[in-house]
């Protein structure tokens, strides 16, 4: 269970030496360091801390320090030569501070730009997807054209993009079928690309992903929202697959492959799936089946079903439901999302709290949003842990164990929304 660390023991900047574990009681964007809590390791760290103007805002932790706290350095009159040397050193440190702060801000801006691109793209896709899914039964051809265009555009961007980044988006207040559809679309595209699907196969998979639950408009809400259905209710619920295929067929926009993806997205290799208990299905359908299950475990549709933490959802699928899904697909999904999937709340080695907002190249070192209650959430620092070897995740934190104010700021276990940003190939 996470507990907020205390401020430590106040010290004077003149007491800072290598080996002290210190806490800076200032905003993250007011200093050049990676964290507000850290072990002072270099003479440069010492010089910067002494020049930051941290009077009354500098603390240390004796139990985490590797050296004892020295006495304050008494102020003695300096010679002209010492004053000149001190001024030169101060100017050099000031120049380095400016460079470090600029690099920090530039990196943060690049992260914000990528996240903003993903957010804008999601908003556009969500608007079109919601309208198409809600009107597919009334205007099938028009809605089908919208879904087909979106699928082809998404597949082309994923197939030809140089770098595809997955983002956990900010809080979305709207409700509707677009959330699950776009989550599934996004993860299907990233897994499909890693598994070598062609652009055409990605487009068929994207189209199936967007419309796989379209038929739920014909299922009463009291059945959809109940996780403890009676047999006749479950039988009716399972007809949403047939309804989805019918609506997609009526639109005239779905290829045979895309229709098959929809028809088989609840089938399982061990024959326990439905509606036909098929043991063989296309690779695209197997991708959709696994990702649909993952998103439903994290964000269940039924009101009386508790959501799982993202890592718990992956563990459930891998350890307890392995026979129901293509092992290759689940393995790729786990590698894609990492040990700490987006949406996971974690504690870092400096005792700070963070939420994973994107996977990194190393499964143990994702991109995290640092809990910073003194900042608006959209201004809080985002760190790429694979570039910061001194800062590691120590444990995943169950959101229910967090104080209410911390949980409200992080807003975990609300509807998770994923989307991607794409860096085009150069040259």
Protein architecture, described:
The chain is α+β, with helices and mostly antiparallel strands. It has 3 domains: 95 residues, no CATH class; 232 residues, Hypothetical protein af1432 (Orthogonal Bundle), CATH 1.10.3210.10; 68 residues, no CATH class. The strands form 3 sheets. It has a 5-stranded antiparallel β-sheet with strand order 9-8-7-6-10, with no helix packed on it. The chain has a 4-stranded antiparallel β-sheet with strand order 1-4-2-3, with no helix packed on it. A two-stranded antiparallel sheet has the order 5-11. Strand 6 and strand 7 form a beta hairpin. Helix 4 packs across helix 12. It is elongated. The mean pLDDT is 91.
Task: Please supply descriptive tags for the structure shown above.
427 residues, alpha+beta, Hypothetical protein af1432, five-stranded antiparallel beta sheet, four-stranded antiparallel beta sheet, 45% helix, 11% strand, elongated
């Amino acid at each position: 269970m996470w507990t907020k660390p205390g401020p430590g023991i106040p010290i004077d900047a003149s007491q800072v030496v290598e080996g002290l574990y210190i806490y800076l009681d200032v905003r993250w964007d007011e200093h050049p360091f990676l964290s507000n809590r850290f072990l002072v390791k270099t003479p440069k760290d010492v010089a910067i801390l002494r020049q930051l103007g941290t009077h009354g805002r500098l603390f240390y932790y004796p139990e985490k320090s590797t050296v004892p706290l020295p006495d304050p350095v008494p102020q003695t009159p300096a010679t002209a030569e010492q004053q000149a040397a001190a001024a030169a050193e101060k100017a050099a440190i000031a120049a380095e501070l400016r460079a470090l702060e600029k690099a920090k801000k530039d990196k943060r801006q690049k992260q914000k730009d990528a996240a903003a691109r993903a957010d804008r793209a999601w908003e556009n896709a969500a608007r079109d997807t919601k309208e198409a899914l809600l009107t597919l039964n009334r205007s099938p051809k028009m809605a089908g054209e919208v879904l087909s265009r979106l699928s082809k555009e998404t597949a082309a961007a994923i197939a030809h993009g140089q770098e595809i980044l997955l983002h956990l988006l900010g809080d979305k207040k709207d409700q509707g079928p677009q959330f699950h559809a776009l989550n599934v679309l996004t993860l299907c595209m990233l897994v499909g690309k890693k598994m070598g699907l062609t652009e055409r196969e990605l487009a068929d998979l994207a189209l199936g992903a967007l419309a796989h639950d379209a038929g739920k408009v014909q299922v009463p809400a009291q059945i959809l929202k109940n996780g403890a259905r009676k047999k006749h209710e479950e039988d009716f619920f399972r007809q949403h697959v047939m309804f989805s295929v019918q609506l997609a067929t009526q639109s005239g926009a779905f290829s045979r492959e895309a229709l098959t993806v929809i028809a088989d997205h609840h089938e399982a290799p061990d024959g326990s799936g439905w509606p036909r208990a098929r043991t063989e299905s296309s690779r695209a359908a197997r991708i959709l089946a696994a990702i649909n299950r993952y998103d439903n475990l994290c964000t269940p549709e039924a009101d009386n079903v508790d959501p799982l933490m993202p890592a718990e959802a992956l563990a459930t699928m891998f350890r307890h439901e392995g026979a129901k899904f293509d092992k290759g697909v689940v393995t790729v999904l786990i590698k894609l999302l990492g040990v700490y999937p987006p949406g996971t709340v974690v504690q870092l080695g400096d005792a700070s709290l963070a939420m994973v907002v994107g996977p990194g190249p190393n499964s143990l070192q994702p991109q995290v949003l640092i809990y910073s209650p003194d900042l608006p959430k959209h201004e809080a620092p985002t760190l790429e842990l694979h570039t910061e070897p001194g800062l590691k995740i120590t444990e995943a934190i169950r959101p229910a164990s967090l104080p209410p104010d911390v949980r409200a700021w992080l807003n975990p276990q609300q509807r998770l929304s994923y989307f991607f940003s794409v860096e085009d190939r150069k040259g």
